Amino acid sequence: SPSGRQKLREFGLAPPSKHGGRLEIVLKYTVACPYCSSMDTEVRNPFGPTPCRALHFCFACQQPFEEFKPL
Fold first, then answer.
1. Do 35 and 63 meet the contact criterion of CB atoms below 8 Å apart?
2. How far apart are CA 21 and CA 57, in angstroms?
3. The model's pTM
């Protein structure tokens, strides 16, 4: 839900991308930083502390963050 996605951002986690069933497209997208909303990010590790999360880094605010995978 939009409320749940906002709460994840406020906690510092990037919510999963909306994909409409086309996961091959989502896995290529750049993820917005939950801290500053910058798209200048990169995947640092596709496997985070759990299988459903990936580790990213934001070059704009220099913050690492986790993303929930869309899978």
1. yes
2. 26
3. 0.66
